[in-house]
Automatic annotation (TrEMBL):
The chain crosses the membrane at residues 21-45, 51-71, 83-109, 115-135. It comes from Plantactinospora siamensis. Keywords: Membrane, Transmembrane, Transmembrane helix. This is Uncharacterized protein.
Length: 137
């Protein structure tokens, strides 16, 4: 006989933490998307104006909001949720570092990889998400 405590759904506390995370994460991610679209559209990143370097860094501000959301979420998570996130982060970090080494060596060998940093970023983020999903099963 199983206990009524062994439910497959989320607890009330888990749902409250997920809502709090979404309230922190969603506005920061929306601001990031708006900043990227605005910078690419009106930032003049391919021009000669020295301000283009400042405009290129504008999306970093909303990314700091995303970091804040993740840190706050981890601070309020239980031990198991922290372990799952740590495993996902570790895999994402390792994949991003390997991607950086591969892209760096290819660039050093003369291959032009214009989107190289974005490829490494995407590989790290995608593997973080996948590893976290697998670890939480």
């Amino acid at each position: 006989m199983t206990s009524n405590l062994d439910t497959k759904g989320q607890s009330r506390g888990d749902r409250a933490r997920a809502r709090a995370y979404f309230r922190d994460f969603a506005p920061a991610m929306a601001a990031y998307v708006v900043a990227i679209v605005a910078i690419v559209t009106w930032g003049g990143l391919d021009g000669e104006n020295p301000w283009r370097f400042v405009w290129a860094l504008v999306p970093v501000v909303p990314v700091l909001g995303v970091v804040r959301a993740v840190v706050r979420s981890l601070r309020h998570a239980d031990e198991y949720a922290r372990l799952v996130q740590l495993r996902g982060l570790a895999v994402g970090f390792a994949v991003a570092m390997v991607a950086c080494v591969v892209l760096g060596m290819l660039t050093a060998a003369g291959l032009s990889v214009p989107a190289g940093p974005w490829l490494a970023f995407g590989a790290g983020m995608a593997s973080w998400a996948a590893a976290t999903a697998i670890a939480s099963r």
